[in-house]
Structures are given as structure tokens and as C-alpha cells.
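To the team - flavin-adenine dinucleotide complex, inputs and output below.
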Amino acid sequence: MQRYDLVVIGSGPGGYVAAIRAAQLGLSVALVERYPTLGGTCLNVGCIPSKALLDSSEHYYNAQKHFADHGILVEKMALNWEKMMARKAQVVKQTVGGLEYLMKKNKIEVFHGHGRFVSANEVAVDGGPTLYGKAIVIATGSKPADLPHILIDKRRIITSTEALSLGEIPKRLVIIGGGVIGVEMASIYGRLGTELTVIEYMDRLLPGMDADAAEETRRLLSGDYGAKILLGYTAQRAEVGEGGVRIVAEPRKGGEPVIVEADYALVAVGRRPYTQGLELEKAGLSTDERGRIPVNAHLQTAVPHIYAIGDVIHGPMLAHKASEDGVFVAEQLAGRRPHLDYLQVPSVVYIWPEVAGVGYTEDMLEKEGRAYRVGKFPYRASGRARAAHESRGFVKVIADAKTDLLLGMHIVGPRAADLIGIGVAGLAYGASAEDIFRLPLAHPTFSEALKEAALAASEGASIHL
Ligand code: FAD
Ligand code: NAD
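Output:
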């Protein structure tokens, strides 16, 4: 039997990062992946291909709608879907290929095949050897959730995986679920001219994110792409016919159902942890009522030398969260004392302008009954935003009412995905809103709006408003 300090099951951003960090710190590491390529959901069918298509579709949309504002006239424009998809595939191939190099560089032994527990220290790889791990990390990720009465046939009723590989641009698309995937997919296809309907169970899009950001997102999808957004509706039934699908959506609080016809129905109602065929019971483990593997604050399962990370445990289902979990576990195994705080993990929605948030939302603080102050600065008052013709959106800074401690930051605006890093640093280092105001940020930049919102939270005023 081959013996390792660490055996990692699953090569997504949780598993592969745990493997690299552990190897860097001197552990011998084996990585088990059931698919032929490394990188998990994120690199193969998630973050990377979706961002590739978001970027391509944004270029197309801007060329059609915004170049003229800058005095650039494009007379003959055409869209080559095959080329767009081929570029996406190439981006994925390169990224996934890069991981193989990193595995070799760090002397991590990779085994392709389904992994399952034989005992609390042994993992059998289908078609391969049985591996002995002094420690084991379960990083098996998640799969799309489904709905009880709507069968995903992967042809007309699809998940994000199929939506990222369609052979044609749909004329009409109905999206069930107005969460992150629903909104990002609506952006891709809305920009390419698809007629969109979004059916969302809650009374707002993007539940869990800042309420003003969610409302701005609703305006954006309906304003820019003419999307029809049904809030407070649930998709009840689906009928698949020749070349299309009919979805019956019922209002949650009662009333007449709405029938939506489309070429495809995308089911994007969340993801569920994936532990199928892992034979957890052989290691003395089980899952909770939501299919997650329970872990303690050290991310140890009920068996202390077996850890679990990423989408298969609690916390936000995000690639960077999975990677933070992976580093956290690897460093503990190497005798370090890292820390982890999910409140400092930012969420980003890659529409345009981007939506990003970190820390507390106002809803969370109201539930906790904690007194807070809010400072908001609109991008229309930013010189950089005007120069870029990008004046939609805002920055919102939330601070403790008594101490001025930064509690949260929420941005809708150009490059929000990158700017939120300042909010992350502020939260991690215990900054006050005043501290953010005092950062000498460059002019003219989109980041100046963060200072303005921070001053508004701290003292109720902004310089340029
Ligand atoms: P995964 O990436 O799911 O990897 C798990 C791996 O384990 C898989 O490769 C699987 O094949 C393997 N595996 C499972 N069981 C076994 C077994 N028994 N034996 C061997 N191997 C096994 N997050 C972001 O932060 N930013 C984004 O922009 C973003 N965009 C997304 C877009 C889409 C369309 C989707 C679907 C998700 C997106 N996410 C994004 C979420 C992100 O992909 C996940 O949070 C992340 O991949 C979770 O990482 P993980 O390592 O926990 O699991
Ligand atoms: P989600 O939890 O973000 O959204 C699911 C939505 O579906 C919710 O708004 C929910 O209210 C709605 N819903 C549930 N049941 C419904 C029903 N019967 N009818 C209508 N609506 C219903 O999940 P998702 O969008 O599927 O994304 C899955 C995961 O992937 C998320 O955790 C997300 O963080 C991650 N992801 C992240 C990114 C990113 O970071 N940019 C991008 C894509 C996905």
C-alpha cells in the first residue's frame, strides 16, 4: 500500500490548493480525482468558463451599445458563437493544464479514478491502488441541486454545465433561480440577444447579498437586456416538447400561474454537497440533513485525522472559500496556527457593472439588533466613472454606530470584484470606517468612491457629494 502524510480526495480549488500548500510545507501528498482533468467544478464547468463567456459577451454588447458613445462606429458586426465557445474551451484547457504542471512541480502524486474509503486511513482509487493517508482531506465539492417536479434532462432542461456549452444561442431562455448563477447566465445570454425570463422564489434577486445591490441588479437585467423577472414565483411544472420547453410558474403567495415558453430552461436553484460513492460510513463518518459533512472549527470531521473543506461543508459555496479552507487545513497539518473567518470572504457577481460584498449586510445587522451607520456614494459623482462612461452603481460602507468599526462593504460598480479587496483587508485588520477614508488612494480611480462612502459612514458627509 502506498503511504502518504496526506491524501486529498477531489481536485477542485479546495483540494488542489490544500495539496499544494501541504507539499510546500514538506508533507508527502497524493491527490485523487475522478475526472480526467484537474480543477473541479470551478476550473472545468464553473468560475473559469463562465467568466470567459461573460468577458466575450461583454465585448460584443459594448461594441453594439457603447462604442458609439466613445465615437467609435462599427458598421458590420457579426457574432461567431463557435469561435466564442472555442475560446472558452481554450481558456479552460490552459488553466487545467497549468494545474498538471503545478502538481509535478510540487511532487504531488495524482491518481485519476473515483476515491472511496476502505477504512479511516485508507482510500481505494477505482482502477488504481489503495492509498494510506496519515491525514485525509475530503474535498469532493458539490453538484447542481434539482427541483422535485422538474426533471433535468440536460437537453431542454439544463444546469449551468450545459448552459456553458450550448450548441446555439437560445432565442428564449427561462432561468429558474435568480441567485448568482441565474444572474450571471442572464448576463451572458442577455448580451447576446436572448429573450430572458427569470423565475425567483424570493421577493428579490441575489438573496444573501446587499438588498440595494440586488435591486440595482434587477434594474440592470431588465433595463439592459429586457429580462422579464418574476419575483416571488416558483417553477412548479415543466413540459418538454419538440424544440422547446414550457414552465408553469406559480406565485408563492397565491394567484394565477404564469406560463413561460422557451428553447431551454436553466435550473439554477443552488448546489448540494457531493459525497456519492465515497463510502463515508467505512471511515465512521456521515452527512447532516443537508448532505454536508459536519466539521469543527479546525475543519476536522468526527474522525480527527479526516478533514473536510469547500462546498462539501458549511459556509459559502465559493472557490476562494474552498481554497482558504484548504490552506487552513494544510497549515495545521504542518504545525502552523492559521485562522479562518467566513465573514471576511467576499461574494462577487460578475455582471457589469460588477456586484461585490463582504462582511455584514444591513439585513444581518438588523436581525442581530446591532446599531450601525451606513455611508453610500454613487458612481455618478466619480470623475473616473464619468471618464469611463460607467456612472451606474454605488459603494456602501457599513460601520458600527458606536465604535466606527468597519462591519461591511458592498459595491455595485466597475471593477467591484477587485475593489472589494480593500474591504476584505479592512475587515481582516480591524479597520474603522475612518481608516478607510484616510487611505491615500490614487486619483482618478474607481477606488476613491470607497473613501467617500467611508467618510459618509463615519461622519455623515462625502467630499464630492
Ligand atoms: P469542486 O470544485 O466541486 O471539486 C470537487 C472535485 O472532487 C471534483 O473535481 C470532483 O470530480 C471530485 N470528486 C468528487 N467525488 C470524488 C471522489 N469520490 N473521488 C475522486 N474525486 C472526486 N465560485 C467563485 O468563487 N467564483 C466564481 O466566479 C464562481 N463561478 C461559478 C460558476 C458556476 C457556473 C458554478 C457552477 C460555480 C461557480 N463557483 C464560483 C463556485 C465554485 O465553482 C465552487 O465553490 C468551487 O468549485 C468549490 O470547490 P471545491 O474544491 O469544494 O469543489
Ligand atoms: P444560489 O443559492 O445563489 O441561488 C439560487 C436561487 O434559486 C435563490 O435565489 C433561491 O431563492 C432560488 N430558488 C430556489 N428554489 C426555487 C424555485 N423552486 N423556484 C424559483 N427560484 C428558486 O445558487 P446558484 O445561483 O445555483 O449558485 C450555486 C452556488 O454557486 C452558489 O453558492 C454560488 O455562490 C456559487 N457561484 C458563485 C459564483 C460567483 O462567485 N460569481 C458564480 C456562480 C455560482
